[in-house]
Amino acid sequence: MTRRTTIDASTTAALRREHLAALDVLSVAHDQVRQVLDDATTALAAVRTHLEQGRMISDLPDLLEPKTVRTSLSRSLDELERARHRSQRALFRMLEAEGQRKSDIARICGVSRQLVSRIIHEPD
User: Fold this and answer.
1) Full pLDDT tens readout for the chain, 124 residues
2) CA 82, 83, 84 angle in degrees (round to 5)?
3) What is the Cβ-side half-sphere exposure of residue 55, based on CA atoms within 13 angstroms?
4) Rg for the chain, CA atoms, rounded
5) Hey, what's the torsion of the CAs at 50, 60, 34, 85, to 10 degrees?
6) 93 to each of 19, 25, 40, 116, how far by Cα in Å?
């Protein structure tokens, strides 16, 4: 069962701003991942074409920079995960402030109650 409590307007507004900011960061991170994946797709196609033409794989560094592709992909995925976590924390905090129990939040979001509790109480 869900309990409903009244929370003050300033707390609601602050939590809403926090969540909106987190969603903005998540959106930017998402766009960056898409761009890096598009770049990686282009790189893969270039490698495939290079090999299909019978060229040597050792020529690959002349064709593209594998380290840059890998680093960009890893960095953008890390940023996406941090942004996702921040957004999740803001969501959990808003739900709790609106009177949802941790067990309800866990059920709604498909995670454990312990995870909800840990995320809600972690420092900013």
Assistant:
1) 445 555 778 888 999 999 999 999 999 999 999 999 999 999 999 999 999 999 998 888 888 888 899 999 999 999 999 999 999 999 999 999 989 999 999 999 999 999 999 999 998 7
2) 90
3) 14
4) 22
5) 140
6) 9, 17, 36, 9
Tokens 């960056």, residue?
32
- Hey, what are 13's tokens? 């507004």
Q: Using an 8 Å Cβ cutoff, are 63 and 50 in contact?
A: yes
Count, residues in the chain: 124
Q: Write the DSSP string, 16-43.
A: HHHHHHHHHHHHHHHHHHHHHHHHHHHH
- pTM tops 0.85, yes or no: no
